Amino acid sequence: MSKLKNYFEGNLSESAMEQISEQIINAKLDRDKKRKWTRQLQQEYGLLRPPQKKLSFFKKHQSTIIKVAASLLLLFSAYFIYESITPPSYLKIVDEEIENLNIMGDPSVFRKGDKEIDELRKKANLTYVDQKYAESIFFWNQIIATDKSIAMDYFYLGLCHLKKTDPDHHKAIEFFLKAKSMGGPKEEIKWALVLVYLKIGEIEKGKQLINEIIKQKTYKSGTAEKILTHLEGIH
């Protein structure tokens, strides 16, 4: 800067003045050449040199940001995977109750009647007790195909569809409602419907029946209250 100041004030020797003048002229010519080349490249080849930008904050810290983002993504993924594979708390009770649904003492199995139907009911009951639900369904279907079926046949058929390895919940509901329409055991049917509705996510239907059970203090009212506490906040 002192040389330039002395140059403009004329305080340098003639040779020094000539040297600086030459440098200034060369610098100007160099800038002019660059501008000329830029215009020529743009006009002839459509090339435009992009303006130089300062590195953005992202580029300066790109590696760190990517690492933090990856960690957060992994954390959120783990959370949602855990949520998706962890069943709601009420379902644990529901599954236990379904597991414990048993054949009730059905006097129709032991009374004297149609020998063939009685034999089918015995086989259906025994295979149910042995947890051979597919076989049990086979026998119950044979019974309801006759005109001698009763409400309990449909109720037990519904239980089989609910408890088998690959449950058919909609079939279970169909047979429970059929049993109800034929005068089957109201309290047991209502409880079975609660379980199957909750199992398939029909929460409001399940809640409605649970509230009836609690209000009337009928079969399984204590368990119904326990399930209801787990259902609070679920719509």
Name the beta content range.
Answer: under 5%
Number of helices: 13
Low-confidence stretches: 78-85
- Number of β-strand runs: 0
Approximate shape: rod-shaped
The percentage helix is over 70%
Intertermini distance: 78 Å
Sheet/helix structural class = mainly alpha
Largest sheet: none
Mean pLDDT, nearest integer? 78
Written as H for each helix and E for each strand, in order along the chain, the element string is: HHHHHHHHHHHHH
Radius of gyration: 43 Å
Give a structural overview.
This protein is mainly alpha-helical and 235 residues long. Helix content is 74%, strand content 0%. It has 13 helices and no strands. The protein has helices spanning 2-9, 14-45, 57-60, 62-85, 89-99, 107-110, 115-129, 133-144, 151-163, 169-181, 186-199, 203-216, 221-231. The longest helix is centred in the first third of the chain and has 32 residues, at 14-45. The chain is rod-shaped, with a radius of gyration of 43 Å. Mean pLDDT is 78; it is low at 78-85.
Q: Nutshell version of this structure?
A:
The protein has 235 residues and is an all-alpha fold. Helix content is 74%, strand content 0%.
Jot down its keywords.
mainly alpha; 13 helices; 74% helix
Helices and strands in order, then pairings?
Layout: H1 2-9, H2 14-45, H3 57-60, H4 62-85, H5 89-99, H6 107-110, H7 115-129, H8 133-144, H9 151-163, H10 169-181, H11 186-199, H12 203-216, H13 221-231
Helix pairs in contact: 5-11, 5-13, 7-8, 8-9, 9-10, 10-11, 11-12, 12-13
